[in-house]
Write a structure and sequence with these properties.
- By secondary structure, the chain is mainly beta.
- It has two helices and six strands.
- A hairpin with a 2-residue loop joins strand 2 and strand 3.
- It binds calcium ion.
- Calcium ion binds at residues 77, 79, 89.
Length: 154
């Protein structure tokens, strides 16, 4: 299992029973482009904000294989497979354009994504339309916002 979540306003990356608490935060009320990479090879990982690498490391669950066929939970913490949710652990805020790819993005890839919002040239594991199609728990989609190229919605 891979988790990426906020704890006390800090992003935490969790992979197969190991976690790293970063000093990265994005709770200023503005839109930010967040990207997380992890690879089983050496357990290399990185957290980027607005295209810049803010935290990185190695040896986070190296060699672990994430099996296919699972589910993606956005905005909640599942304590059992597909369940065990509770309100205090819900994400409070807005998320847009979440994608998951089967490769480790490189810093130059992330910079392009963050600065241009251009599509990444690879088939994704999860794409934003897939996620919008699976909303549950009283969530509702908001009108499209334009937060690329340094713009923040007003
Ligand atoms: Ca929980």
């Amino acid at each position: 299992m891979i988790n990426f979540y906020l704890n006390n306003s800090l992003f935490v990356l969790y992979v197969a029973n190991n976690r790293f608490v970063t000093d990265v935060t994005a709770t200023d009320g503005l839109w930010h482009h967040i990207c997380v990479t992890w690879t089983s090879q050496n357990g290399d990982w990185a957290v980027y904000m607005d295209g810049a690498q803010k935290a990185y490391g190695t040896d986070l669950s190296p060699g672990v294989v994430i099996p296919g066929g699972g589910i993606l939970v956005v905005g909640q913490d599942q304590d059992i497979l597909g369940g065990g949710f509770n309100d205090p652990e819900a994400f409070m805020g807005e998320i847009a354009q979440l994608y998951v790819w089967p490769v480790e993005l490189q810093p130059s890839d992330v910079m392009v994504l963050a600065s241009t919002c251009a599509p990444y040239g690879m088939v994704e594991i999860f794409a934003w339309p897939d996620i919008l199609g699976g909303l549950a728990g009283g969530l509702e989609p908001l009108p499209l916002v334009h937060f690329c190229r340094g713009q923040n919605p007003v």
